[in-house]
Structures are given as C-alpha cells and as structure tokens.
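ARCHIVE CARD
SHELF: 3
SLOT: left
DATA:
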Amino acid sequence: MSNLKKAYVAGGCFWGMEDLFRVRPGIKDTEVIYIGGDNEQPTYRNHPGHAEGIELTYDPQETSYALILDYFFRVHDPTTVNRQGNDRGSSYRSTIFYQDEEEKRIAEEMIDVVNKSERWNGPVVTTLEPFTVAWPAEEAHQDYLVKNPGGYTCHFERFGPFV
C-alpha cells in the first residue's frame, strides 16, 4: 500500500523545474501543470492568472516537504517578482501552493531560513497560495527537456542545502 503525497510549486518555466525535480531522492512522479488562475481547462495559449507549476508526487519515507522546498529555493530565483531568466509575467511567479496549515507553516519557516541565509541578493518574494485545483499542461510540455535535450531552461542548482 502506497503512502505517497503531493506537493505543488511554481518557480518560472515548468520545464526546467520538472527536469531537476524528476531525479531528486523520494520524488516518484512529476507533472507540469497550470495552477492558481482564473479559468478551467487552461492551455498554454489561454491560462490567465495561472502559474506554470509542477505537481510533485513523493514518498514521505524518502524525503520531506521541507526538503522539497529547500531544493525549490535552490533551483530558481525566489527574489524576482513574476520573472525567471528571460521569462516574464505572472505565469512565471514564485509560489508555493499549500494544501493545509502544516504545509503553510513549513513554507513560512523555509522562507525565513532562506532569508536569514542571505545567499540571495534580496528578500524572498515567493507567495503562499492555498491549493485549489491543478490542471495538467498539454502532453507536449510534459517531460519536455527529456524529449528535447538542450531545450531552454533557466533553472539550475545555485547553492547547497539551506537546512
């Protein structure tokens, strides 16, 4: 019997985030999604207010929500509003979509840890939003960098662990 959990984050273009998370210890599956927006059944051409996010399915016996967020803050710039690399707009915002008060508390604690580390040149602007629904992105976007090696990404590991 499986005891897998899900986590939802957005930190810029979903391709790069997915590619890095897919190989992390404890991550069992990844899916690129549209999340936190204004319409149902969003598409790449029509996703007002939605962030390009990722759904992470993980085994809590092998990793934790805190470790997932630790890595999240290491692979994108959480100090830029609605921007990662060359990508600009609210689709590329840095957001943690928490599912309950415990996840919200852990996210707030991680933001505090990251800010106190002073590794970034400014304060974290990552927003916390309650999870409502996630919409899978089109098949062409799923596992994009596996299908298209050398495709565009602005995500990479910038630091070692915060915790």
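SLOT: right
DATA:
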Amino acid sequence: MAGTRAQLSEFDPVWRQITTEAQAAVKDEPLLGGLVHSSILHYDNIEAALAYRISLKLASSEMPEQILREICDWAYRSDPDLALAARADIVAVNDRDPACDRYILPMLFFKGFQAVQAYRVAHWLWCEGRHDMGRFFQMRASEVFGVDIHPAARIGMGIMIDHAHSIVIGETAVVGDNVSMLHSVTLGGTGKEEEDRHPKIGDGVLIGAGAKVLGNIKVGRCSRIAAGSVVLEEVPPCKTVAGVPARIVGEAGCDQPSVSMNQLLGVR
C-alpha cells in the first residue's frame, strides 16, 4: 500500500484522465466552464477536488461550506486510503455503468459516487471518535443525495451504486470490495436488536434494484441478488437468489457478476 501511494503521488492516472476530460468539457460546453474549473481544474490533486465537491454539496445554513471543507481536507491528509478508494470507485463506475463514458462524470454529476465519498469522510470521523459530526455528514448526505449510509458501516473499494436513490445501509453492515448495487437497495436489520444486526456482503456481489437484505446474514462473494428480492437467510458464494423471501435459483453465471452487471435470471 505504501508503494502504491508513492507511485500515485508521482503519477496519478485517474486524476490525469479527469483533468484531461475536464479541459475537453470546457471546450465543448463553455457554459459549464465555471462548474468544471471550480470543481476540478482549480486543484492539483483529486483529494482537494473531492474535499471541495463534498463540502459544497453538504453545506447548509447549519454548517457552512468552509468548515466542511476544512474537515474534508483534514480527512484526506490524515488517511490517504480515502482518495485511493475514491479512485477505485471512479474506475468501477466508468467500467460498469453504461451511462458513464468519462471519469469526469461521477465527480460532477453522479450522486451515487458523491454520496459514497461523503460516507467515506463520515466513516473517518466515526473512527476518530467524532460520532456526532459523522452523523451530521450522514444526515446531509441523506437529505441531498437520498442515500442513507450509517458512518459506522464498513464499505470496501471499487463500489458502484447506480442511480442511488433510496439506498439504506445500516450501522453494522459490511460491504466488501467491488460490489455493485442499484437504486432502492436496503441493507437493514430485522427489528430492534442493538448489537451486530446488519448484513455482511462479500466481494464482487451484485445487488439488484429494490432488493432488501435484512439481518446479520452473510452474502457470499460473487453472488447475485435479483431485483425486488427480500433476503433473510445466508447466501453461499457464487449463487443467484431471487424472490420474496429469496431462494437460490441457480449459479451466479459468471466469475464477477458485479462487473458484468448481468441481472437477467437464467442468462449465462
């Protein structure tokens, strides 16, 4: 990890691609020049651009942009993994979302990506013991993006949340690396339990639109959860589940369902 950070400090291909696309966007659509310059071209690195974008989106009369910007800047300085995760998320969105053909789009327009980055700062605050500030970030992200992720939840890298409307991820949920989910997904509890009560999602899982995964259950790596399913029991690795309640209906159909984004049951 240290070697990766050193390489990125010298040559950051994701940031270089973003700035190249930003320059082209200004040329193609001059009326967006102010937005693109203030959000991307004004900065030397992705950390500063993300801090600006998050603070701009979450600012309100209760908490001004400048204070949020200072918090985000401090988070990115303190934990380089935050920006590494953001880079992985951008690449994931560009690879998996057919509506995304440029790295610049998640930075400027995709609320799923922006909500996940706000969560990452909130999680850093939570781990620093600043629980109330983490909750403030959670509240504002929910109000602004329609994505409610508890700051104590643990979420890996390479996350793609498509459309990202009405996403709920609970306090003790764990989401692995390279997970894809669509709108209206809930990773929730089943009642008033106060301990470990939320799902544990393995690496490479695809969760379809409107799916609900409830309780302290495991969803094995590289599995598929069909749209509209309600999952109440553990899902083995590399399986497809569907229905209410969800049942195993077959194999996952490929090695990386979260990358292929194939949501059609019975299609290999």
